[in-house]
Amino acid sequence: MKTNSSNPSRREFLATTTKAGLSVGLMGTAFSDLLAQPNQQVVDTGFTQTPLPYAYTALEPHIDARTMEIHYTKHAAAYASNLRDAAKEEGVDTAQPLELVLTSISKYSAKMRNNGGGHYNHELFWSILGTASEPGPEGALLKSLKTSFGSYEAFVSQFETAAKTRFGSGWAWLLVDTTGKLVVSSTPNQDNPLMDIAEVKGTPILGLDVWEHAYYLHYQNRRPDYVAAFWKVVNWKVVADRFAAATT
Ligand code: MN
């Protein structure tokens, strides 16, 4: 993980992040922790929402501001709140990473599974989105995509199929599986590949929310259009960080 603050793209990211944080009034002390321990931030998920690292308008026209605001402040906020309720009810220590609960989710209630998954999935989702100027995958991640899928285009096609054919509500994933290989999967509802009940298990590094609440205001029934637009707003630097954390 590069921490060189003289890097222009990083400087730009920090400036954007700071403005976005201030504009939504969610700037907290956690931000300095994020800068101090970037890898820690991408591998450990807490039980509360982290501030969005950009404004609600940042992903337009691909994901509209109204959808982002409702999605973050209503849907995702409810998962986080219900997760904390479930943790209290089931005696779960909220100081530990949420990942530890998810990997043994079969021992917990449906409330924990739905809301723990819901909170984790949305925290990951916000983190891997960014402005429309983000470059595509590079370096070790691009190399691994080519090794695992044959080409970047083949990966995109497989991921889009997973997202479009997930019946009802759920997620499409790019994950590092238990053998260290990159694979695509999809899960129903708020399940994810970390869970011990997942059909395909591993560490997710990219996820796409295909619940209707994620796209219906702007795209209505046109899920394929939303899936195609997703590539315009993927922050590949964060995906690469998650890939590095999952493979080292
Ligand atoms: Mn959602």
Describe this structure in words.
- Strands 2-1-3 form a three-stranded antiparallel β-sheet.
- The longest helix is centred in the first third of the chain and has 25 residues.
- Helix 4 runs antiparallel to helix 6.
- With 248 residues, it is mostly helical.
- The chain has eleven helices and three strands.
- The N terminus is likely disordered.
- Helix content is 51%, strand content 9%.
- The termini are close together.
- It folds into two domains: 118 residues, Orthogonal Bundle (Helix Hairpins); 96 residues, minor pseudopilin epsh fold, CATH 3.55.40.20.
- A hairpin with a 4-residue loop joins strand 1 and strand 2.
- The site of manganese (II) ion has 7 residues, from helix 4.
Helix tally equals 11
Q: Report the span from N to C terminus.
A: 12 Å
**What's the architecture of the largest domain, going by CATH?**
Orthogonal Bundle
Enumerate the strands of the largest sheet in spatial order, edge to edge or round the barrel.
2-1-3
Helix and strand run: HHHHHHHHEEEHHH
- Ligand catalogue: manganese (II) ion
The CATH class name of the largest domain reads Mainly Alpha
Instruction: Give the helix level as a range of percent.
Output: 40-55%
What is the tally of beta strands?
Answer: 3
CATH topology of the largest domain: Helix Hairpins
Taking the sheet with the most strands, its summary is:
3 strands, antiparallel
How much of the residues is beta strand, in percent?
A: 5-15%
Integer tally of domains:
2
CATH superfamily of the largest domain: Fe,Mn superoxide dismutase (SOD) domain
Shape: globular
What is the SS-derived class?
mainly alpha
Oligomerization category of the chains in this entry: single chain
Q: What is the overall pLDDT average?
A: 86
Q: What's the gyration radius in Å?
A: 17 Å
Q: List segments where confidence is low: pLDDT < 50 over at least 5 consecutive residues.
A: 1-42
